[in-house]
Amino acid sequence: MRRVIVPAAAVLVSLAPAAPAVAAHHPPPQKVPVAEGHGGAVATVDLDASRAAVAVLRRGGNAMDAAVAAGAVLGVTEPYSAGLAGGGFMVYYDARRRQVHTIDGRETAPRAMTSTSLEGIPFEEAVTSGLSAGVPGAVAQWDLALRRFGTLSLRQALQPAIEVASKGFVVDQTFHDQTAQNAARFKDFTSTAALYLPGGAPPAVGSVFRNPDLAATYRELARRGPGWLYGGRLGSEIVETVKRPPVTPGSTRNVRPGLMELGDLRAYRALMREPTRVGYRGLTVYGMAPPSSGGSTVGEALNILDALPRVGVHEYLEASRLAFADRNAYVGDIPGVPLRELLSDGFAKERACLIGERAVKHPAPPGAPDGDYGPCAPPSDTAPATPTAAEGPETTHLVVADRWGNVVAYNLTIESTGGNGIVVPGRGFLLNNELTDFTFGPAPGDPNLPAPGKRPRSSMAPTLVFDDGRPVMALGSPGGSTIITTVLQILVNRYEFGMRLPEALAAPRATQRNTAQTQAEQAFLDAYETELEARGHDLVLNPEIGAATALEFLGRGRIQAVAEPVRRGGGSAMVAGSHR
Ligand code: GLU
Fold first, then answer.
1. Closest by alpha carbon to 573, among 4, 70, 7?
2. Ligand 1, atom 1, residue with closest C-alpha
3. Any domain includes 361
């Protein structure tokens, strides 16, 4: 056996008291939320995904190779949050060229979808339907990401996922519970019940779950390439499933068929987009531009905070409230989003001026990002005040850095936990229900109404922070529109309140998205409820907000990888270790 010399620097710090300290050269056998060392690092929600990423890094792969490999593994082990029929956004730092790129792998509406296609449909009914399935973006995104920035082929990057799908993974409490929460609808589809309710019940905690169909699907995708999905046989099967969902005989569920055609799959493209960029406390923060509202909303809120003389939790909530008012009024996958104005210092100052001793009255109207800013202007008289619709705690986020300094923040999703609930028969994966992220309407003028080929507005906010041209942090989270507030709150915790990164992630959260009530975790209520209610906030319990992953670059190649210590069962942070 090869003796492994652990460099003094490659120590592993853990917040979880039960977690053993493990030499950084061996992937830990169980999840630990914090790892520190050299040679690259990763944080995901899942041990198998983090191990896959670290294995790729150790074999000389770069951060993008590792991110795609881990993303494909999450399609196996976190199949209710992500998968090859989903979509996502990547923010990537290319260390050699010193450039930040973003890749939009968001699902699209079929060409037959119009502004009224979702009108009048009950939300819950749309969730579990063929109609809500967007044209998948994940595979095209992986392919583009690897071609532009990777060293592995898609075929190579899929190998760890093939292995995990065929050998199986150990069912944990989160997987079990998510299956149980979905059981009522999973049983209504023959394909889904056969895969996820074996013997009629969710797989037991501690049992090994294998997905040979998905292993075979990934294998064939590896062999045939993305064209197999985007116009080939797999694409035809997806279209067939969307149009004629395999409803269990005797089920009374009203399952609406979808509008997707093979031509929609053929037309799909993952897209390179300009990142959003704001200055904040001397740092530069890059994020995801439309069709995500992540970069613009986090960016605007940071600009507002930057314009204030003092920042506490009240200011954090108010900046978020105002930024969401503007997001809801102006951001979507449409031409002419006033992105530059939304992210301008002038606009931020005008918005910051509204923040006083007491909370802004609900709902906060949007501002006027028109380039003409006074010290404290009245709100827009044309755009209506729109509160943010409710969203669930789905999705996942991962971060990877490699030994060369490349960094990826990658948010991936199939929208609801369990997507649209429909497994493509014999293929081992769920379809997304991303099109429920559109505004259903009627809502004249809303930037997020459906349209042919349009991408639904997202809240995903993979984020990179730079100091003097060097990356200092990468972060992101799941959680629908709370993604934005979770990212914002971690940045506020770190850079305003001076917490270290593990504390900044673990700290109790609250989320204000231009809603009447501010949702907050119990520990946040315990600490701030009295103070905030005295200032006009109305707080309500949300037991768990977000499940973030992040990296901090500590200098000289040293990285701290951080995942959740507790939320969603805790995540998995690892460093690749140094071979110097
Ligand atoms: N569909 C959501 C979005 O793009 C992500 C899924 C979620 O976290 O709810 O914003």
1. 70
2. 415
3. no
Query: From the CB of 478, is ligand 1 less than 6 Å away?
Result: yes
Q: Whose CA is nearest to atom 9 of ligand 1?
A: 480
Q: Which residues contact 259 (CB under 8 A, 6 or more apart)?
A: 110, 112, 113, 117, 131, 242
449 belongs to a structural domain = no
Nearest CA to ligand 1 atom 4: 458
CB 559 within 8 A of CB 501: no
Q: What was the pLDDT predicted at 29? A: 74
Q: Whose CA is nearest to atom 8 of ligand 1?
A: 480
Phi and psi torsions of 540, nearest 5°: -140, 150
Of all protein residues, whose CA lies closest to atom 7 belonging to ligand 1? 480
Structure confidence at residue 231 (pLDDT): 97
- Contact at 8 Å (CB) between 406 and 149? yes
If you measure from the C-alpha of residue 462 to the centroid of ligand 1, how many angstroms do you get, rounded to a whole number?
Answer: 12
Domain that holds residue 412: 34-272+390-444+458-577
> What pLDDT is stored for residue 377 in this prediction?
66
Asked whether residue 440 is assigned to any structural domain, the reply reads yes
- In the prediction, which pLDDT does 26 show? 53
Write down the pLDDT at residue 2.
31
**Domains in the chain, number:** 1
CA of 413 to the centre of ligand 1 (A): 7
**pLDDT tens digits for range 412-433:** 999 999 999 999 999 999 999 9
Read off the tokens for 271.
Answer: 């897209």
392 CB less than 6 Å from ligand 1?
A: yes
pLDDT in the model for residue 19: 36
C-alpha distance from residue 63 to each of 67, 68, 295, 408 (Å): 6, 9, 21, 6
Low-confidence stretches of the chain (pLDDT beneath 50): 1-25, 579-580
Nearest atom, ligand 1, residue 395 CA: 8
> Ligand 1, from 437, 486, 513: best to mutate by most atoms within 8 Å of Cβ?
437
**Any ligand 1 atom below 6 A from CB of 480:** yes
DSSP codes of every residue in 316-371: HHHHHHHHHHHHHHH-SSSTT--HHHHT-HHHHHHHHTT--SSPPPSSPPP---SS
CATH (domain of 185): 3.60.20.40
**Residue 10 falls inside a structural domain:** no
Which ligand 1 atom minimizes the distance to the CA of 106?
Answer: 4
Cα of 65 vs centre of ligand 1, distance in Å, is: 24
